[in-house]
Design goal:
By secondary structure, the chain is α/β, with parallel strands linked by helices. The strands form two sheets. It has a seven-stranded parallel beta sheet, with helices on both faces. Strands 7-8 form a two-stranded parallel sheet. The protein is globular, with a radius of gyration of 17 Å. Strand 5, helix 6 (about 155-175) and strand 6 (about 180-185) form a beta-alpha-beta unit. The chain contains seven helices and nine strands, in the order βαβαβαβααβαβββαβ.
């Protein structure tokens, strides 16, 4: 997929943070983009902002979809194909974080984390396999360095991201026979609103959402013979502890 112009991408959780940064960059590359959110208003407002800032002929649209529900994801994929006629790239990005000791984390927080971060990735890929078979497309999942490195109070989040990392690598082996490429990107600290964080000047050292967008574009433009299947990315100069 060395040229991206006129390709079509669906980005889950694409209304803010990493997902929005990816959507912005792909629009710059001439990719038509669909972003999803659990609320239609958020998805449509994000699409409006993306289109207002775009300097290419590519278009962004917004759909309501819940990654926790396979039928909802299938409906989103069908809607993208109805509007654009194809789907070339699925970015399974939607995610949440609940952080607490195993003594304190609730069953609801555990289920919410696993259902969104892990089952949501399964649903996103499962719903779009047939669409990507037609285009010999590309799956990108957004895991985390927490998908290889565990930490205190991270039981639910670690479990979900370890799962995404392993799941993605297995899917890569399943689907490459169809000409579909599969990669997972594993960021460290990213300057986003994740988990209720408010961005401020102290976040300047972190990876920025547009950096992940640039990385995604570079991966998609690589020579088709090469597959970067698992990509770790971290801040170049974190503060000294």
């Amino acid at each position: 997929m060395t040229t991206l112009k006129n390709k079509v991408a669906l980005i889950t959780g694409g209304t803010k943070g990493i997902g929005y940064g990816i959507a912005e960059r792909l629009l710059q590359e001439g990719v038509n983009v669909a972003v999803t959110s659990r609320t239609l208003q958020s998805a449509q407002e994000a699409a409006e902002r993306l289109n207002a800032n775009s300097k290419t002929e590519a278009k962004a649209i917004g759909f309501q979809a819940d990654v926790r529900n396979l039928k909802s994801q299938q409906e989103a994929v069908n809607a993208v194909e109805d509007v654009f006629g194809q789907l070339d790239v699925m970015v399974a990005n939607a995610g949440i974080g609940h952080f607490a000791s195993i003594e304190d984390i609730t069953e609801e927080q555990w289920k919410d984390t696993i259902d969104t971060n892990l089952t949501g990735v399964f649903n996103s890929i499962k719903a779009s396999v047939n669409a990507l078979k037609k285009t010999k497309g590309y799956y990108l999942t957004i895991s985390s360095l927490a998908g290889e490195n565990f930490f205190a109070n991270g039981s639910a989040y670690n479990a979900s991201k370890f799962g995404v990392t392993g799941f993605t690598q297995a899917v890569m082996l399943d689907l490459r026979q169809h000409g579909i490429k599969v990669s997972t990107i594993m960021p460290g600290s990213v300057a986003t609103h994740f988990n209720g964080h408010t961005l401020n000047d102290a976040d300047a050292w972190k990876i920025q959402s547009e950096d992940i967008g640039e990385l995604v574009a570079d991966v998609l433009k690589m020579n088709p013979r090469t597959l970067p299947s698992k990509i770790e990315v971290r801040p170049a100069m974190p503060p000294s502890k």
